[in-house]
Amino acid sequence: MKFSSIYKIPLLLFFFITLAVSGQIKNPVKFKFTINELGDNQYEAVLNATMESGWHIYSKDIPEDTGIPTDYKVSGKNLELIGKFTEVGKKHEEFSEAFGGKIIFYSNTAGFKQKFKLKDGTKPGDVVAEITYQTCDDRVCLAPNTLEFNKQVTPKGAAEEVKTDEKTAAKDSLQPVVDTLGNVVQPAIPTAETQKLDPKNLKIESINFQKPLTDCGTGSSKISENYWTYLLLGFIGGLIALLTPCVFPMIPLTVSFFTKGNKNPAKGKRDALIYGFFILLIFVLLSVPFHLIDGIAGNIFNEISTNVWLNIAFFIIFIFFAGSFFGYYDITLPSSIANKSSKAEEAGGIIGIFFMALTLVIVSFSCTGPILGSLLGSAITGSANVPMLLTFALAGFGLAWAIVFGLLALFPQALQSLPKSGGWMNTVKVVLGFVELALALKFLSKADLVSKTFFIKRELFIGIWIVVAIGLAIYLFGLIKFPHDDKKPKISVTRKILGVLGIGFVVYLVQGLIPSDRPKLQLLSGILPPLNVSYFHDEKDGILGMHPEHDFFTAIELAKKEGKPILIDFTGYGCENCRKMEEFVWSEPDILPILQNDVVLASLYVDDKEELPEDQKTKIDLGDGQVKKVKTIGDRWSLFQQVNFNNNSQPHYVLLTPDGKVINTPVSGYMEKEKFKKFLECGVNYYKQNK
After folding, report:
1. Residues with Cβ < 8 Å from 10, sequence gap 6 or more?
2. 3-state secondary structure of 567
3. For residue 291, what are the contacts with CB-CB under 8 A and spacing of at least 6?
4. pLDDT by residue (tens digit) across 415-463?
């Protein structure tokens, strides 16, 4: 059964996510803010937009249930608005099949004007202009954006107001500046002691992570990202994909084309090896868009990975992928793409071989799409080093295909030993469907944690996985069937062994439902909800009986009072390695007492979506008069980490003295107990000996 309409949903979401990520950095719209004097105490706040070729922004008059209308607001001290804002420029109107209605937009240039007057014509006025808009081209729409612009208007004969006193200027000088490339520029730091106690200050004068007070041999600690593990996982994923009905039958056909369809056998084998190389290259190229933004926006991947709606979207996509693997519908790319690629094969030579490889990748999307989607979802929501992880994972995926096609071309007699196509390939797909169901819950759980709803308790998560594992075992034993299964399937020995392993996994999961003072299910640490998100505990009970501070400025005051060093734990609700550290390193009997008794623990959540109090919100200068608002707790701690420690990974651990000096070299990522213990003991002992 083929779904002609809904198959596009996960496909569009998959590519929208990829393109939207790139778009957040591209910023194809530039704004210029000016104020025109109209006379008779009237003025006009004008915001002119210039768009790159092919991009457009919507009009304020766009019909409902289509795009996002542009909204322009002007406010400020001593201002009185005159009428509503108006738009200037050439409007374009066209029918949108996607929205099923007419859309109105501006291309190349657009202007937005708001008239106002000064309430007191003898005094200056502070003008604040805010625009909310969405940028689109023919392929993708970027996420809605809000920018703020500030200017002061001074009537003739009136002296310009000094907008900041000395204290405010000191505060403002502490705001990090981000240039147009997204690089954080360190501001000049005032020496006022009060700056360490002001929540608006993101840069702390005394912190210098590059010159710690001591080292103790932890200076070489790096983020524990094992790229080779992702290469291996990608390789395994590629091998699994080769066993699916979309790919496996094409192996002998393709290899035979090169080895038998060519008058020169040596040339045929060479072409087959080139074909394998191009397969590898195509998969690696899929990661290129992510490298274009690597390092430009330090916390962008963290924002993406902890976005509630993105995680819910991944949950829906994975459920949809599972339905496809079960055989209820097929997910395919539009046939026109495959037809164009196939036609390009006629070019012959190296170019023709490249398009043969591209055609294989396209026509196999029905089976490889869900697997590639899993790699994308896991990398984006699992690490800050997304681009390299994706490159290694996709390289492993393509390498598996390249090796199989290449070796079989060199040794075509091995084709005889390949198993024949049959029902076993559908079994592989159905098993993958159960895996997709289990993985889908991970994304829903992350959305639940980040939004602090805590509906999916640890035991509920485990219970759902138990049901999925039981369903898989029952299927493998032939007790349930799916649409493409044989009516009377032969239950092979391999299926029976896998079924027994499924039952064993159920037994392993059951122990996680039993209350215990010690963490269990270490293999699933970081995937399951935290220990305190449980029916047997309250999330307010803290971590392992501890109640960390969640505000650095509160923690530093407490450290001064108690005479202890501060352990900053940069963490996140959606951080898997953070949970692994808490459950299986922090809980160790020779680690936990140090955390409980010898330090003030400050766990700063970089993905906390709760809005800051109004008096603690701040702004980031993007240049050209554009200002980015820092609205949430997570925004603050994410920038705090980047500005002070030039790091945006979690977990990231820093030991500070109460006066804000870095004791020893910070460490990042999941690490073995002994390494973390050495880091803690080094810093704590140094502090005790020198305080």
Report:
1. 316, 317, 320, 321, 331, 369, 373
2. strand
3. 387, 391
4. 666 666 567 777 877 888 898 888 888 888 888 887 778 888 889 999 9
**CA atoms of 286 and 481, how far apart (whole Å):** 35
In 3-state terms, what secondary structure has residue 28? coil
Evaluated on CA atoms 588, 592, 595, 598, the torsion sign reads: negative
Lowest-confidence segment of 95-99, 465-469, 620-624 by average pLDDT: 620-624
Phi-psi region of 320 (alpha: psi -120 to 50; beta: other; left: phi over 0): alpha
Whether the pLDDT of residue 352 is over 80: the answer is no
Is the CB of residue 85 less than 8 Å from the CB of residue 112?
Answer: yes
Distances (CA, A) of 369 to 248, 283, 373, 374, 423: 15, 12, 6, 9, 21
Distance (Å, whole) CA 439 – CA 374: 8
d(CA 440, CA 313): 10
What is the average pLDDT value for the chain, to the nearest integer?
74
92, containing H or E segment:
strand 91-96
**Residues 481, 494: Cα–Cα separation, whole Å:** 17
Q: Pull the structure tokens for residue 455.
A: 């509906």
Which token pair is 684? 């704590």
Residue with tokens 């594992």: 469
Among 150, 209, 360, CA closest to 276: 360
**In whole angstroms, what is the distance from residue 76 CA to residue 552 CA?**
32
Tokens of 170: 């000191």
